[in-house]
Write a structure and sequence with these properties.
The chain has eleven helices and six strands. It has about 180 residues and is mainly alpha-helical. The protein starts with a helix and ends with a helix. Bound molecules: calcium ion (4 copies). One calcium ion (CA) binds next to strand 5.
């Protein structure tokens, strides 16, 4: 289950790795009404019906708990997998996943790095996520678990970088790194 976040976010990458489509074709496939923008309905439909989405669900439990969410999130930002976020990793993670300013002024020096070793451990990251209550923003029905539509909505809000409710082609390009 710890792979959830990778695969959740990477579902398009994986899906498209098996298709000869060009990036533009893929975008058009998700933009089912062809109005030059992927809205939340189109995204959820494409996201939750992708066969690749199920790959992270290896225990048949279709829910993602708070701790799984935190762990997956941390691992996604910890690019070199050394179990700690360097200043650079955190900076990049912050810009990529916290663009809605929930932690706008958080740097390693003001709050996150509680044991002052200049990196952010998982427990320190967990505390920050709890403080800003990031999980609850995804958990729309408040049952402390994320189901598929909730994950789809959360990923959608990440991809919709400017928050206007539509994923434009330029935003899609930012997230779809496959050639
Ligand atoms: Ca690291
Ligand atoms: Ca630390
Ligand atoms: Ca829920
Ligand atoms: Ca947008």
């Amino acid at each position: 289950m710890k792979q959830f976040f990778y695969t959740g976010l990477a579902v398009i990458f994986l899906a498209t790795a098996c298709q000869p489509d060009t990036r533009n074709n893929r975008y058009d496939n998700w933009d089912t009404n062809q109005n030059s923008g992927i809205d939340d309905q189109e995204f959820e439909q494409a996201f939750t019906t992708s066969p690749y989405y199920d790959q992270w669900n290896d225990d048949d439990n279709r829910m993602v708990s708070r701790s799984e969410f935190t762990q997956g999130f941390f691992q996604m930002i910890d690019k070199d997998n050394d179990g700690a976020l360097s200043e650079q990793e955190w900076q990049h993670g912050k810009e990529s996943y916290f663009s809605d300013a929930v932690v706008d002024n958080e740097s390693l020096l003001d709050g996150l790095d509680q044991n002052n070793d200049r990196v952010v451990q998982s427990a320190e990251f967990q505390k920050m996520l709890d403080d800003v209550d990031y999980f609850s923003k995804w958990d729309k029905d408040g049952n402390s678990e994320l189901d598929e539509p909730e994950v789809a909505k959360g990923v959608f809000s990440m991809w919709d970088t400017d928050g206007n409710g539509v994923i434009e082609a330029a935003e899609y390009e930012l997230w779809d790194n496959t050639p």
